[in-house]
Amino acid sequence: MSQEKEMLAALGLSSLDELFVDVPEAVRIDGLHLPPGRSELEVVRDLKAILAKNLTADDHPCFLGAGIAHHFIPAAVRTIVGRSEFLTSYTPYQPEISQGMLQALFEYQSYIAELTGLDAVNSSAYDASTALGEAATMCFRLNEKRRLLVPEAMSWEKKSVLSNYVLGLKMEIVEYGYDPITGELDLEDLRSKVDKDTSGIYVEVPNLFGVIDSQAPFLKQEFPEAALVVGVDPISLGVLKSPGDYGADIVIGEGQSLGIDMNFGGPLLGIFACRQEHVRKMPGRVIGMTHDSEGERAFCMTLQTREQHIRRSKATSNICTNEALMAVAASVYLSILGKEGLEGLAKVNIARARKLMDSIGEIEGFDSPAFEGSHFNEFVVRTPTRPEKLNRLLLKHGIIGGVPLASHIPRLDHHMLLATTEMHSNADHDALLKALKEVS
Amino acid sequence: MSQEKEMLAALGLSSLDELFVDVPEAVRIDGLHLPPGRSELEVVRDLKAILAKNLTADDHPCFLGAGIAHHFIPAAVRTIVGRSEFLTSYTPYQPEISQGMLQALFEYQSYIAELTGLDAVNSSAYDASTALGEAATMCFRLNEKRRLLVPEAMSWEKKSVLSNYVLGLKMEIVEYGYDPITGELDLEDLRSKVDKDTSGIYVEVPNLFGVIDSQAPFLKQEFPEAALVVGVDPISLGVLKSPGDYGADIVIGEGQSLGIDMNFGGPLLGIFACRQEHVRKMPGRVIGMTHDSEGERAFCMTLQTREQHIRRSKATSNICTNEALMAVAASVYLSILGKEGLEGLAKVNIARARKLMDSIGEIEGFDSPAFEGSHFNEFVVRTPTRPEKLNRLLLKHGIIGGVPLASHIPRLDHHMLLATTEMHSNADHDALLKALKEVS
Amino acid sequence: MYQQAKHDRRLIMERDGRSDFDLPFLNELTDQDAVVPSGMRRTELDLPSLPEREVVKHYVNLSQMNFGVDNGLYPLGSCTMKFNPKYADYLTSLPSVNCIHPYQAEETVQGALQIMHELELALCEISGMDAVTLQPAAGAHGEFTGMLLTKAYHVDRGEDRDEVVIPDSAHGTNPASAAMAGYRVVEIPSSMDGRVDLEALKSAMSERTAAFMITNPNTLGIFEEDIQQIAKIVHAAGALLYYDGANLNAVMGRTTPGKMDFDIVHFNLHKTFATPHGGGGPGAGPVGVKERIEPFLPVPRIVIKDSKYKLDYDRPESIGKVRSFYGNFAVLVRAYAYIMRMGGNGLKAASDRAVLNSNYLKKQLMDVYPLPFRELRKHEFVVSAKPLKDQRGIRAFDVAKRLLDYGYHAPTVYFPSLVEEALMIEPTETETKETLDEFAAVMKRIASEDPELVRSAPHNTAVKKVDEVYAAKEAILSYRAFKRRGAGPKA
Amino acid sequence: MYQQAKHDRRLIMERDGRSDFDLPFLNELTDQDAVVPSGMRRTELDLPSLPEREVVKHYVNLSQMNFGVDNGLYPLGSCTMKFNPKYADYLTSLPSVNCIHPYQAEETVQGALQIMHELELALCEISGMDAVTLQPAAGAHGEFTGMLLTKAYHVDRGEDRDEVVIPDSAHGTNPASAAMAGYRVVEIPSSMDGRVDLEALKSAMSERTAAFMITNPNTLGIFEEDIQQIAKIVHAAGALLYYDGANLNAVMGRTTPGKMDFDIVHFNLHKTFATPHGGGGPGAGPVGVKERIEPFLPVPRIVIKDSKYKLDYDRPESIGKVRSFYGNFAVLVRAYAYIMRMGGNGLKAASDRAVLNSNYLKKQLMDVYPLPFRELRKHEFVVSAKPLKDQRGIRAFDVAKRLLDYGYHAPTVYFPSLVEEALMIEPTETETKETLDEFAAVMKRIASEDPELVRSAPHNTAVKKVDEVYAAKEAILSYRAFKRRGAGPKA
Ligand SMILES: Cc1ncc(COP(=O)(O)O)c(C=O)c1O
Ligand SMILES: Cc1ncc(COP(=O)(O)O)c(C=O)c1O
């Protein structure tokens, strides 16, 4: 007798249908109109064939950035995050049998704490945009004010997400401008917009233009009443001052650069850190250090009274499933790089971008970099032809070009944002330069 | 102080050179003339670029066989053999901390025992050819005779390896012919060559022509004095009688079909099984069942007194490192397929080969199958043009053709051995047929 | 007996060595190459430096102190911890999945768009909805998206509704998501038989009600038989009916939210469609809607134009975006592969077997762990350890911890709160009868074990019972914080 | 304290379920499709049938009961268990490595041939030899190949030599390989200082001597300083000098077998070049030779013709083949990647650090575990537990088992036999000072632990001390044999 028959018999039933007698006739369906199941061999073969239609950054130099970029991932990172015990486990609700994940996440929090200069870090938000959304509502929880200042020079996607996240609290989002010469924030404009109702100020370092804003360290002094929220690319923190050092209350960022695949934009890793004193107002899961009944060090999820499953509609966030595995990847990645590796990586990114932006600047018709500030690994180029057209031409040379900036700042319609990282060889740079020369 | 300096200091040394004072000046070298070390990123990128020059069976239908062939490997097999604990362990010399590997290998032995019908199985030889070599010397140990009969219809590589393995014992290798109509062994010829000094008779099922020899079951009756050695493709044993059932003393075979990549020919998996009564004469590592000090079941390497590290020059073989991980792959593979899966796989292989050989037979100028016997997943085709030329033409159609048989049996210079498996879709078959029609 | 691995538990920050990481260009760097505004230069970076060998050892050993589905039964009710097939892992290892940038031109990502589009269609069929967005990153994110859609829908109709009604047995994310979208949450108690109380529902509904959020089957594993009346009540009030898809695993091929007249539904691909949960995430929480809500879906929408897949941003009524880019693509690929592998027949069989396994296991346990409410359950069920607590002093919590000693993950405990000493058990369809029999035997055995042994469990795990109160009180969330304190638990 | 995982240990054959494996064409099969000669038809096939879920669980849990380098220090002397870098795993996962057939036309496998060719050249440089074959599958297989080459060489010169001389401290594969090639093995004892006894060597050499096989540094980790005299003695007798490359890890960039006047050498890529050992294999045992032996190397040889890589089979003096095809290609790719990553400087640094680690660790242990013979060692060393045995009744065997309790693999024990109660320790270069210090502390601690606790070790492993005598006596090598017996150890 088959397993199923035995089990049905044990239930005194003779068919599977009897298990569904509680489903009213009127709402029943007669199976699904999907193709029948197929073997692993066929499914994998077919999907590979479909996916093969994608061009990848693996075989085409790709200069896209604006949030995520192509970075090197040591093979060991994949080895670890592919481990069954991490990959196939749930949120660590039972700490005794989940110390592995808990410690790895605690280490992630520790790394981000060190990089951001803030002691309290959650074990991830979905991505930078939702981390920003959560930061905005946290600002409200900190000071019960509703006005949030954000840079005009910011990804339109983040702006859109942010506006959805603050909808419930009816917070007001106000944009401040940038300096058209340096690409840094326009302090005058910001000053004119900060008022007593201002809950928080959001600044990105590096910003959408790839510029490392030299004014960031002075914002907290200037605007002590408002919460300072800083958006970062974590690898830049290998050489940049930690936002905690210059007074940030909350740091958010996109952790994709920390050993996580681009994945066509997901999964990513939303970084979220804050000052220890704000910890009970923070959103998301956090792992805390504790001990077991024998006094040995142990870890567990903690501060759950902030969370949805306890506080329900009063929770600091609705987040439940997060991006834990990506946080583990980030831990492994940072562990492999180590102090010198991260510093070196940041420097290589800066140096490579500098080299490329200068070389493009030498090409007739291109203004590069379009902004004078210091850059991390992205920069804006003013192009002679529209960036969309340029990209089509580059593609003919096997090159995936940059982001047309007008999609984020409509006025900058002859501007392209280019990213370059440790992934680009000299040959990749030369190929881009050669192609740009041809089209100019 | 760096680790190295501290350690040197602890040794009372001031430089690494001092650790090599025992190397006579005259034999010292001044470093290696190899390129300097490079980063993982560069090494991987460069090697991928070199490897990209290979055409793979993954994107070109490939009809090569003659020992190994392109088979489907469930992704779970790779997940398991990629597990650090299996992959990075040594031979399980310390059984208490190595039960995982030991049990997996015991299960491998158990699977092969069931398939071959013999109780004693070693935990692998390097490949089928060295397994055959080891079988030959084992025949000598069984009956102290030196004459070994092998089929003419057998891979030249196996013949060459065999002659090297029997060199030390000065055994004599005698070939017996095949029936030019059926492709089965020529029993008359074999009879005429077996004598009282005959140590063993080797027969392959299926043989080099892909033919399932219907006379195999009668050989032991016919030649009871000689050890019967049977070479198998293990997946064929999903439907074929186990050699143990018809009196085989030793069964060897290539285990690559059991979930192991083709790997350009290595690593492979040498299967080696024998009757329980011969166990102390068998070569190679074996895992035995036992118990621990608390009476719980446990496994360990056993019968080591046959082996080189104990018996030294009197060992049954010199083998030490074997292909253990491949044996684990085979266990996982067979576990996933299960009884019905293996049976189904064997049937699909037979059916697909039948379909293809018949279809080729319908093409003008091709004689297919060239032999009348029952086939497993390979068959011989008599071709109108020389097979080497045919293959070049097929390659232009993106098809990797078959093995020119003349490389194994020089006389069959217009014969090609084609293999087809579950990997070939109908479209793959059609592409081959279409291409063959064009060239004929 | 089972015993979990236990390794050295120093933090990676507490180890010593020297990194062997290397990068191109690193040796060529000069001081002028990496200029940073002086006020922005970092002066201290206190990270460990270890050779890869140490890092791999550390995390491989950590992993052995973690329990996943691949290690054994994970009957965590509501979480649907089924087997995660390995071919999906393989697919996401391909550069054609993991090495594409979301801002690539459409013509360079046709494969990705095709898979996403076909997944949307498959989810429409499975849920009976008219359109699906793949953007939300998780179930709760899908709920939030659903609430934003609800708001957009009502606003578009010129209605100002500010309440969402939710049963008390709902998952915490439901009220939290509604609140985040600015709704006031009205909780209604369950009926005496563990289902939606139609009277309570009716009296909660008003012209202020924007939506009613439920799961079906509910968190007790009971199918809401009155679903047609519920839908009528909700729609009569002008509100939308929201389906929390976390329990969709129970009914695929048997019914659909669409057929049950739901307006909005979220899926948990990491539950129903076998994508691994990664120790907390990533997941994916697509949202399906009926046609009249479709205009409000997040941008971009995937459309076909001239036989090419395109991203359509020109959607004036759209709520915009709920996260960057298009969703957790790598998770979507896994789910799509799973759906293809299973097929329509396979998905139905999966639900059928999930329900069979659940009812079979329930039956084995019922005499020792009583089952409140009706007997027929769907993919999960809730039993109570109340008698055990009363008679032997063994709480649901203790049973959960003791199960760890036997190499099982624990069920969900103390949820839903309408059952005292609740143990919420979901075996899923990927478990064999043998596994269920063995688990049932252990559950019964625990009930008759020495209560002290059970209460002091777990004994066989990497650490003993963890002090969660200390963790919450001290809130040590990073090594930095730990060092600053100058004291704390040592490895 | 360390504790290894312990899971249900039933055999996969003792589990129950139903396979969910599927294949294309399976449903279309008819009875006529799979015809088999009637006498050849199988009537019984007693294999388990389990869903993939059960299979994965089974093997994932088994793996946790196995100790690999990735789990910790593996100081197994002679085996060189260094860290296996993960980029090499990645490369072998590419279809361009694992999905090519050895009989593909040369023009379709230029990448594979290029890598093999370049690896041969790199090995020539590292060993100071003139030509290398990659065909042998392991070290012992390389030795056998070397012996066949020795034979071919002498036969070609019209000489009939039938003896091979080997020191008593040699690895067992050396005499076994020589014997397999038909040689009589003459063992010579080591000198009082643990090295080759030149007098014994001289008196063993004769016109019957085909070769002298040694490692340098030898199995005690001592460098044979008299290597030049040894080479002279051997060559003066007309014999060849064979280098067992298992210890090459000690001397890369410092000396080469070629420079030391060896004629034939085998490499263990799975030791020196960091390819993983896979729980027993696969390995790769390339063989390098001086020019005059090159004509005898196995076919095919990789050659460059018209800027293309070709396989040259036209080698009339070749010994033919020692295995099918061209060697363990996937292992070769890993080794090549490792060599490229390390570079000439990195390989030298690896040897230097291996020797430093070894000497440092030796120094830490010497007062408790005396070191026979001279102090300076290369990559490994042998200490003795003799005093411990005499004074406290703790044998080398006991120390080895007790180390398992602390999460270390044991050293090699009782080899070489010239040291009583030998513990042969090879830390390798991939271990940190911290790891060595901790290991040394544990080694010392064991020496002062309760002898009974040590003798009854291990206590923290998946099983307790294993009865190896029972295993050898009963010789149960398969489930089939187990079932046939009708009784035996139960899981
Ligand atoms: C019933 C129910 N609803 C919603 C959720 C939230 O889903 P997610 O964790 O994906 O955000 C869950 C999962 O925890 C759940 O079980
Ligand atoms: C000194 C020595 N020689 C030879 C060998 C044999 O090498 P393999 O195991 O690769 O056959 C070994 C390894 O065990 C060894 O240590």
Q: Which small molecules are bound? A: pyridoxal-5'-phosphate
Largest sheet of chain C: 7 strands, mixed
- Number of E-state strands of chain C: 12
Q: Superfamily at the CATH H level of the largest domain in chain A?
A: Type I PLP-dependent aspartate aminotransferase-like (Major domain)
Q: Give me the Rg of chain A, rounded.
A: 25 Å
Kindly, what is the distance between the CA atoms of the first and last residues of chain A, rounded to a whole number of angstroms?
A: 76 Å
How many β-strand stretches of chain A? 12
Gyration radius over CA of chain C: 25 Å
**Biggest interface, CB < 8 A:** A-C, 205 and 199 residues
Q: Assembly state here? A: heterotetramer
Placed side by side, the strands forming the largest sheet of chain C appear as 1-7-6-5-4-2-3
Which class do the helix and strand fractions of chain C yield?
alpha/beta
Provide the low-confidence segments of chain C as ranges.
none
Largest sheet, spatial ordering of strands of chain A = 1-7-6-5-4-2-3
Instruction: Please give the share of residues in helix of chain A.
Output: 25-40%
The first-level CATH class name of the largest domain in chain A: Alpha Beta
Major sheet size, sense and barrel closure of chain A = 7 strands, mixed
Total of helices of chain A: 13
What is the count of helical runs of chain C?
A: 16
CATH architecture assignment of the largest domain in chain A: 3-Layer(aba) Sandwich
CATH architecture of the domain at 86-341 in chain C: 3-Layer(aba) Sandwich
